[in-house]
Amino acid sequence: MQKVVVGTVAAVVLVLGAVVGVVWWERGAPPGFRPAAVPVAVGAITREHRGVATEGTVHLAVRISQVAGEQRWTLAPLMPLGDTQSREVRVLLRTERKLDDLATYEDVTVRGFARPPGRLVPGSVVLALEQAGYTVPEDLILLEEWVD
């Protein structure tokens, strides 16, 4: 009986440890915490960054909404500050912030997680960006803004 309990507890601890380890590795901080926000220019953000602080210009002509229950996110291309001409989306901003409905461009200061897009950016989002005249490279970065 004792071996069964010890084996079960060990398996549970091992699985929980693996889950916490994967989340920690992906986010750069343990679950429930944030990594340090490193100041970095929009054009210099890579998949090696975890927490970033940056300033840029959001192109709002092609904003995409995502809804899950009560939560609503806006996805839009984030370009270097003042850049309204570029059409290559290297960084895609995902925010819960209310962006100006009447603006085409908005300068923002963002702190958040820089990560590969994964399942948060489905093919339909990439297709919508391409149909709006943007190009999306393979090394796209998703910048998920922190909600304070």
Provide a descriptive summary of the structure in words.
The chain has 2 helices and 7 strands. The mean pLDDT is 88. With 148 residues, the chain is an alpha+beta fold. The N and C termini lie far apart (48 Å). The protein folds into 2 domains: 1-33; 38-145, Beta Barrel (OB fold (Dihydrolipoamide Acetyltransferase, E2P)). The protein has helices at 2-27, 123-131, and strands at residues 38-39, 51-59, 64-68, 71-80, 91-95, 105-115, 141-145. Strands 2-4-5-7-6 form a 5-stranded mixed barrel. A hairpin with a 2-residue loop joins strand 3 (64-68) and strand 4.
Provide a brief overview of the structure.
The chain is of the alpha+beta class and 148 residues long. It contains two helices and seven strands, in the order H-E-E-E-E-E-E-H-E.
